[in-house]
Amino acid sequence: KVPTIFPGPLVLWAWNEKAAKKATAIRHLYNTLKECVQPGQNPMLIPMPDYRPKYPKINPEVEINPNHPYGYVNLGHELIGKGDVEGGLTCFRKAVDCDPNSPAWHMNLGVALVNKGNYEEALGCYRKAIQLAPTKGAYQVQLGNFLKSVGDYDGAISYFRTASQLEPKNVNLRVNIGNTILAKGDVEGAIASHRQ
Asked: What is the mean pLDDT of residues 110-128?
């Protein structure tokens, strides 16, 4: 949904002619993305000058600039993708420590905590993300999906309704509400919701 380019150190530093050409090409690509995206989308160009992945074990304390949350988030996703949930959690916590006012970092940490089975702390992260970005429907939906998964259908419906108010043209949100009402066992309510 948000086109993002993460140029690393081999592109950022003009250490040879080929790197300088790649940097120029990436800048051109970024400028082209800005012209081509849908209204409301903001492409991002996030330099990663200190990101040096090493496999198979990465030590975030050594490998990532401690003031750069994007590096931690990227590494967190990579580690979780490889099955290292603990390593991913460590990275997401560090991203939150770097920038505690970023709702996205709290949301990433919440998702990782759900994968770990730590629902109470995940719920706190989801709520913090919504507190920081109360008008972002996607965060309301994420919390609604979590609540539905743990059987709190009324809580889920409440967050889905808020998201639907924030994004009234998103039909899928109304479908989510109807499906959650159905999961509660209220067939008539689900039918009425779907008809809306």
From this structure: 91
Question: 129 pairs with which residues across the strands?
Answer: none
pLDDT above 90: residue 169? no
Give the tokens for residue 96. 């939150």
Which is nearest to 144 in space by CA: 116, 118, 117, 181? 181
Specify the amino acid at residue 128: K
Residue 28 and residue 45 in contact, taking contact as beta carbons nearer than 8 Å: no
Task: Answer whether the bond into residue 49 is a cis peptide, omega within 30°.
Answer: no
Question: What backbone torsions phi and psi does residue 151 show, to the nearest 5 degrees?
Answer: 90, 5
- Cα separation, 62 vs 34, in Å, equals 34
Alpha helices in the chain (DSSP H): 9-12, 17-36, 60-63, 69-81, 85-98, 103-116, 119-132, 137-149, 153-166, 171-183, 187-195
Would the pTM of this model clear 0.70, i.e. be above it? no
6 Cα distance to chain centroid = 16
68 vs 80 pLDDT, higher one = 80
How many whole angstroms separate alpha carbon 145 and alpha carbon 95?
24
